[in-house]
Design a protein that fits this description.
The complex is a heterodimer. Chain A is of the alpha+beta class. Chain A folds into three domains: 107 residues, Butyryl-Coa Dehydrogenase, subunit A, domain 1 (Orthogonal Bundle), CATH 1.10.540; 101 residues, Butyryl-CoA Dehydrogenase, subunit A, domain 2 (Beta Barrel), CATH 2.40.110; 156 residues, Butyryl-CoA Dehydrogenase, subunit A, domain 3 (Up-down Bundle). Helix content of chain A is 51%, strand content 15%. Chain A has 14 helices and ten strands. In chain A, the strands form three sheets. A four-stranded antiparallel β-sheet of chain A has the order 3-4-8-7, with no helix packed on it. In chain A, strands 2-5-6 form a three-stranded mixed β-sheet, covered by helices on one side. A two-stranded antiparallel sheet of chain A has the order 9-10. In chain A, a hairpin with a 2-residue loop joins strand 9 and strand 10. In chain A, helix 4 runs antiparallel to helix 9, helix 8 runs antiparallel to helix 12 and helix 10 packs antiparallel against helix 12. Chain B is of the alpha+beta class. In chain B, strand 9 and strand 10 form a beta hairpin. The longest helix of chain B has 29 residues. Classes of the chains: A alpha+beta, B alpha+beta. At the A-B interface, strand 1, helix 8, helix 9, helix 10 and helix 13 of A face strand 1, helix 7, helix 8, helix 9 and helix 11 of B. Strand 1 of chain A pairs antiparallel with strand 1 of chain B, so a sheet runs across the interface.
Chain lengths: 394, 403
């Protein structure tokens, strides 16, 4: 019936998360950036019972849907986008398992939910030039043996659960690749060097060294399914979360700059009372609101079980544009104060750039949108030829 | 509750208006742009089909908007949502032709909201006539537009009459209108409290048409200058009568009605951008460069995709503003956000899409060239983009009264 207000239930969830974020994330964002989340913050978030809120019941989740997840992620990212990423123990690995949707994948997710560890996805590789992954999986008797190296793995090495993409059939590209599950620690898998990154530093980005990693034959999760199809669902799921976080980042930047512009005076009046600043703030408000509406629309379509790849891609591109614009403009509004680390806006600007490389990057989103409009297969858009980054599969 | 499903009525209106836009409006648009004329047969046909540029209440012999009592599935009125959905489709047909649809146009709302029952019968009753007729709205002057307080046209009481003097400009359908709502001041020192709205009939001595403007776009639409020299208007033609202006609400009440027109204008800008986007998609599929359709180039995909999502964002901002109005929520900020974003977006989208089409994009036998010219004014009329940002600024920054 074309209605754009949140339900009472969702409004309550939203205000709970907002309060948590304002008490536990925003005031500590520099410490979180430097050293990650404390056990206390993790425990307080766990008390809210919101992890796995959108997962199906078969995976131990609450099946509350995509809009609920979007609202939660926005509020967490409004507190701090890096913290939002770190609080998501499932990360990209969980999204891939959900995209798979098999009993085995759901069982692994349920176990993750019950524990307190995190999951990591080893997909991207440095210098990958062909469609094949350089990491290989070879069947030896009843075992798989994996060898190779993965790049840009968020939280890799010390994860409770690793999901690894490896080449099974040479020269067959993605269709010859497999998805492998590594539960618990294993001598065949360890962290390599930790990358120094631009933003979202609350989660370490590491190399993953895989040497003679032996796994039972049941570790392969994707037999008899098309990786291209799974990939599409995976990117869709990531896009939703990225969009919501980008909206939170945009809204936080806008609100921070707006409040600053009311307090800071120049030439005898608040700087917000100069048109150049006020109009910029107006455009920031519009950008954040438009991105939120796009995100809700895409989430709503997901919840209606309607095809939503194009809408999710559109929402993500719109939201990332809003995040860049708002974060960079916030620095401008704060001037020198925005550039130094006494205020969070310089961090959010770095976070925005990093967020845009998570999952389906902006150019790939546009390729999906264009493919959809032109009646082409969306799967071809997955293969958009840009260098892969963390949580990118291709 | 978040729900993006159109109600049955909203969807029916969308489909009906789209049919009209595609089959009646679009086919005459290019020729109308060249000749600056709308064919009389078209106008008569619109009249026969009952298409009007503004709702006319039942008591004045019209159909009424039929929407006041119409509720969506949740029992919330849906007038504004239906209006923006219809506006997008109508403008998809052609933005210039639709401004010439017979009916009271922008003159309708002040008569409806401020007029006495007798005035409504008298002015809106003329639209019962089977011949196409127009009303118009005369506010803007050479030195006053959005800053209404600055209007210079004067009204001096003389017995049972008022004597009007001044000039109005950029008046849509100003020359063909049977009557024009003219805003004037009885006492410039009183600001808005001195403002009065009169209905001035075509042919009243001293009321003449100055020049008809030549414009960048919207060439099929008539934009006239109106000159008032000692025009005698009977006090019965003072909208709402003397008493109406004693309270504070009189004039301000009429201005408030324009909060609901901003989402409609934003919806039109969205419709035009969408129309151009669809043309560009078709074009890129069919045109080859270096052995592949140009749509296969990522640089072209980028422009198309960016246009697509920004058009969608415009539509959602419009829908939100309309939904808020229907739900009785104050929406001045959101209405201006929709107008500010949709208009600027449409201007940029049209520029990008002309680029996508290359040389074909600047030929005037393609619609995008025309729409590229038409669209610019959407960031200007009904409050420029800057005015919209002033409205927003005042609502997001505390203690900001004016710049």
């Amino acid at each position: 019936m074309l209605s754009l207000g949140l339900s009472e239930e969702l409004t309550a969830i939203q205000s709970t998360v907002r309060q948590f974020a304002s008490e536990h994330l925003r005031p500590k964002l520099r410490a979180i950036e430097k050293s990650g989340l404390t056990a206390d913050t993790r425990a307080r978030f766990a008390e809210l019972g919101l992890f796995g809120v959108d997962w199906p019941e078969a995976a131990g989740g609450q099946a509350l849907g995509a809009i609920t997840r979007a609202v939660i992620e926005e509020e967490l990212a409004y507190g701090d986008p890096g913290a939002a990423l770190a609080l998501d123990r499932g990360g990209a690995a969980a999204q891939l398992l959900l995209a798979l949707g098999t009993d085995r994948a759901h069982a692994a997710l349920e176990k993750l939910l019950e524990g307190d560890g995190h999951a990591a996805l080893g997909a991207a590789e440095e210098g990958k030039a062909r469609d094949d992954f350089r990491t290989t999986a070879v069947k030896q008797g009843n075992e798989w043996v994996l060898n190779g190296k993965k790049a840009y793995v968020l939280g890799g090495g010390d994860a409770a659960l690793h999901v690894i993409l490896a080449q099974v059939d040479a020269n067959a590209g993605l269709e010859g690749a497999g998805i492998f599950l590594v539960e618990g620690s294993n001598v065949g898998i360890r962290a390599g060097r930790t990358h120094t990154t631009l933003g979202l530093q609350a989660v370490p980005v590491r190399e993953l060294v895989i040497e003679g990693l032996k796994l039972p034959s049941s570790a392969r999760l994707d037999e008899k399914v098309s990786l291209h199809k799974i990939l599409r669902r995976y990117y869709d799921r990531i896009s939703l979360v990225t969009s919501a976080r980008a909206v939170g980042l945009a809204a936080a930047s806008y609100e921070y700059a707006r409040a600053y512009a009311e307090e800071r005076t120049a030439f005898g009046k608040p700087i917000g009372h100069f048109q150049a600043i006020a109009f910029l703030l107006s455009d920031m408000a519009i950008a954040a609101d438009a991105a939120r509406l796009m995100t809700w629309k895409a989430a709503w379509q997901l919840d209606q079980n309607q095809p939503a790849s194009a809408e999710l891609a559109g929402a993500q591109a719109q939201a990332l544009e809003a995040a860049f614009f708002c974060a960079n403009s916030a620095i401008q509004v704060l001037g020198g104060a925005g550039y130094v680390q006494d205020h969070p806006v310089e961090k959010w600007s770095r976070d925005a750039k990093t967020l845009s490389l998570y999952g389906q990057h902006a150019q790939a989103s546009h390729a999906v949108l264009a493919a959809s409009a032109l009646g082409r297969s969306l799967e071809s858009a997955d293969l958009f030829p840009l260098p892969s980054l963390h949580a990118s599969l291709s | 509750m978040i729900d993006f499903t159109l109600s049955e009525m909203q969807d029916t209106v969308r489909q009906m208006v789209h049919w009209l836009a595609e089959n009646e409006i679009r086919p005459i648009a290019l020729e109308a742009d060249r000749t600056h004329q709308i064919p009389l047969e078209f106008l008569k046909k619109m009249k026969e089909l009952g298409i009007s540029s503004g709702a006319i209440s039942k008591r004045a012999g019209g159909e009424g908007d039929g929407l006041g009592e119409n509720k969506d599935g949740r029992g919330v009125k849906q007038t504004n949502r239906v209006a923006v959905i219809g506006s997008e489709e109508m403008a998809w047909g052609d933005p210039a032709v639709i401004l010439t649809m017979p009916g009271p146009g922008l003159g309708g709302p002040p008569v409806e909201f401020m007029g006495t029952p007798e005035q409504k019968d008298k002015y809106l009753g003329i639209f019962k006539d089977p011949e196409p007729k127009w009303g118009a709205y005369g506010l803007t002057e050479p030195v006053a537009g959005s800053d209404v307080a600055g209007i210079k046209t004067t009204a001096r009481k003389d017995g049972n009459h008022y004597v009007l003097n001044g000039r109005k400009c950029f008046i849509t359908n100003g020359a063909r209108a049977s009557w024009v709502v003219i805003f004037a001041t009885v006492d410039a020192s009183k600001g808005r409290a001195g403002h009065r709205a009169f209905v001035v009939q075509k042919g009243t001595p001293g009321f003449t048409v100055g020049k008809i403007e030549e414009k960048m776009g919207l060439r099929a639409s008539e934009t006239a200058e109106l000159v008032l020299e000692d025009v005698r208007v009977h006090q019965d033609d003072l909208l709402g009568g003397e008493k109406h202006y004693e309270g504070k609400e009189g004039f301000m009440g009429a201005m408030k009605t324009f909060d609901s027109t901003r989402p409609m204008v934003a919806a039109m800008a969205t419709g035009i951008a969408r129309a151009a986007y669809e043309k560009a998609i078709d074009f890129t599929k069919e045109h080859f460069d270096l052995s592949r359709p140009i749509a296969r180039y990522h640089a072209v995909e980028e422009l198309l995709a960016r246009s697509q999502r920004r058009i969608e964002a415009s539509r959602l901002l419009v829908w939100r503003a309309a939904w808020m109005a229907d739900s009785g929520l104050p929406n001045a900020k959101e209405a201006s956000m929709a107008k500010a974003y949709a208009a600027r977006t449409a201007v940029e989208v049209l520029s990008d899409l002309v680029q996508v089409m290359g040389a074909a994009g600047v030929m005037n036998d393609h619609f995008v060239e025309k729409w590229y010219r038409d669209i610019k004014v959407y960031d200007i009329f009904e409050g420029t983009g800057e005015i919209q940002r002033i409205v927003i600024s005042k609502r997001i920054l505390k203690d900001l009264k004016a710049f």
